[in-house]
Amino acid sequence: MSADRARGPGAGVSTHCAYCALQCGTLLRPNGPSAEVEPSPGFPVNRGALCQKGWTAPALLTAPDRLRRPLVREPGGDLVPAGWDEALDLVVTRLDRVRERYGPDGVGVFGGGGLTNEKAYALGKFARVALGTSQIDYNGRFCMSSAAAAGNAAFGLDRGLPFPVVDLGDADVVLLAGANPAETMPPLMRHLVRPRLIVIDPRRTRTAEQAALHLQPAPGTDLALALGLLHLAVTENHLDKEYLDTRTTGIDAAWRYALPWWPERVEQVTGVPVEDQRTAVRMLAEAGRSYLLTGRGVEQHSKGTDTTAAFINLALALGLPGRTGSGYGCLTGQGNGQGGREHGQKADQLPGYRMITDPAARAHVAGVWGVDPASLPGPGRSAYELLDALGTPGGPRALLVFGSNPVVSAPYAAHVARRLAALDLLVVADLVPSETTELADVVLPVAQWAEEDGTTTSLEGRVLRRRAALTPPAGVRTDLEILHGLAVRLGQPAHRFPVSPRTVFDELRQASSGGRADYAGISYERLDAGEALYWPCPDAPGGNHPGTPRLFLDRFAHADGLARLAAVEHRDAAETPDAHYPLHATTGRVLAQYQSGAQTRRVPELLAAAPGTHVEIHPGTAAHYGLTEGALAKVTSARGSTIARVRLVHTLRTDTVFLPFHFPGAGRANLLTGPALDPVSRMPEFKVCAVRVEPWQERQA
Fold it and tell me: Do residues 107 and 399 make contact, with C-beta atoms less than 8 angstroms apart?
């Protein structure tokens, strides 16, 4: 029996982890109000392994402060328990007031990359049909948007990995650019034992420690490095000329921009030695099977799309994508980061990865929804731009948040908190209190991953079944039930917003049919029978299309079948060090915490492993600024300051400090990060800002 198939009585419920995009296979065995977890031994991605977060995931099911009743803010300022009818009636009354005064775009919706496909789809439909607003985006804009934009431009299609994860295990060489899977998705490392690793990262991470070669560029210079690697591929005769001639277009324009980036210049700008550059290109080019993978480190920049495109250029120049045993891919981050961006949460997209400006796409989706295509709004603001506009003239005056905690996770976090506080109405649906629920006017408690059915789509484009092992606590509703209750109160027919995940998925299949992310041939029945189905999986006679585990083997998704190399040029980060802010700061994850930490900080084992914010700094740099191991430091950018405990790291660059972004209050790393956005993907520049550091004394009680 497939490990993805539900087991019999007593054998546990087959499902998938609540956290990252690996979506590791797990078995849940109910144990009172909680459950015991173990890895599904046959699921190919995690191969019987789980990370620390996966092993401890059930602890959140019984968190002492879990939300179990709606909360409504009283005139005096306190959040107090309320009944569901009271809470939903209040939300709709105040939404109607806002819409009457400011129009449909007076209301915004902010979703999450952890929502199931069904919930992401229903949320996009709810925004555009029940509310009529264009103002919807999601926190996945902060994660994968640059890679998505670059992948669509290069290949005509965006799927994190256009091949199964297991293919990596047969590689000879894998280059990881800005990715640290040893901490962010540890089970992936089981597939990276055989390959020799090349890691590009300003830090010597746990992944870099396992690499055959570590390239350590200054933050914000990855694009210059990628251009330099392409320069060497050309000048040292590593190009796959037949592949370029028959399967691509654009090499001449890409080369014109790479031409000035000779190795010595690249070393001067990035700090990466010339010989290491040459070794990296030679390792990739001479391997029989090689992969190039990008992560947030190269994507979360104001030039993240161009940087990702430059690494794709290198992969295309070497003939890797669309070839059995080699390729390019993006290590998608959030649990449903792939599916979450395919079915309508993004400001410019409709289900099936259709663009909202495409008349044919609008007509198709409107037909499935039973509405006039002209009634669908156009594209709205991207995630940060949406948050930045809250409560301003012309911006939304009400916001509904599902599955996100932007007070911690958004850039320029103090500013975002001020914008949220300026709203006429903030509604947050979540399972535990968060820094964002603290600002809400209405808080709606939702079911957790182990308490509801649904599907997610992993980083390899495989659609997976989440299965309920437990019944939600009394007083808790699913997101689908909440959207149904709100939609009916807003005047929508009840059948338009079903509460059954299976019913929603069947509608999603219709809406996606013919789109780039085509799920029409995937069904709960096929998934429950144990089939491994990767999109695109169109409807087919007999309903048995096998899905597409490996994309681009015959042609790329552009009309002419060719991949496109991009003409991109290096430019500085939006903010570079100066006399007042002399250091680079970069942010990222640590093994024991996840995203904004609202969930993982409630798991005692994880909190003990990573209890609070720290700042990594080279000992020489620390000594220069009067900092010592374990002391508190004040890290300041042009936007604010973070208080963090000093951790001396000998392998860190002397011009760089690192902070994890999982922690609240004065420890928020995103108090430092800025609002600069990529012009294409609208990705904020999380990975680099200019800071200064100084000692900080704990205040006396």
Answer: yes
93-115 burial, b at 16+ Cβ within 10 Å, e below that, comes to ebbeebbeebeebbbbbbbbbbb
- Residue 279 CB partners (closer than 8 Å, separation 6+): 213
What does the alpha-carbon distance between residue 141 and residue 678 come to, in Å, rounded to a whole number?
A: 11
Cα distance between residue 502 and residue 231, in whole Å:
51
Asked if residue 7 has pLDDT above 90, the reply is no
Please name which of 652, 505, 630, 496 lies closest in space to residue 583, comparing C-alpha atoms: 652
**Percent of the chain surpassing pLDDT 70:** 98
| C-beta of residue 634 within 8 angstroms of C-beta of residue 672 | no
Packing angle of the helix pair 145-155, 304-317 (nearest 10 deg): 40
Nearest to 376, CA basis, from 400, 351, 401: 351
Token pair listed for 40: 């599904």
Coil, strand or helix: which one is 428?
strand
pLDDT at position 699 = 61
**Rounded Cα gap, residues 217 and 272, in angstroms:** 6
Structural tokens at position 231:
């320069």
Q: CA 148 to CA 141: how far, in whole Å?
A: 10
Taking only the tens place, the pLDDT of each residue in 370-398 is 999 999 999 999 999 999 999 999 999 99
Q: How confident is the model at residue 335 (pLDDT cuts 50, 70, 90)?
A: confident
Question: Of all helices (H) and strands (E), which one includes residue 245?
Answer: helix 241-247
Q: Which two tokens stand for residue 36?
A: 């015991």
| Cis bond before residue 536 (omega within 30° of 0) | yes
- Residue 444, φ and ψ in degrees, nearest 5: -115, 120
Those residues whose C-beta lies under 8 Å from the C-beta of residue 484, and which sit 6 or more positions away, are: 494, 497, 498, 499
Task: Round to whole Å and give the CA distance between 440 and 422.
Answer: 11
In a 3-state reduction of DSSP, which class is residue 420?
helix
CA diameter of the chain: 73
d(CA 119, CA 21): 17
Residue 539 and residue 533 in contact, taking contact as beta carbons nearer than 8 Å: no
Rounded Cα distance, 179 and 175, in Å: 9
Q: What is the pTM of this model?
A: 0.96
* pLDDT of 701 over the 70 cut: no
For CA atoms 189, 43, 60, 425, the dihedral sign is positive
Q: Which of 453, 332, 430, 526 is nearest to 28 (CA)?
A: 453
Structure tokens at 448: 């957790």
Looking at residue 541, its pLDDT comes to 84
Report the amino acid identity of residue 540: A
- Structure-token match 């007999």, residue found: 542
What does the alpha-carbon distance between residue 588 and residue 448 come to, in Å, rounded to a whole number? 25
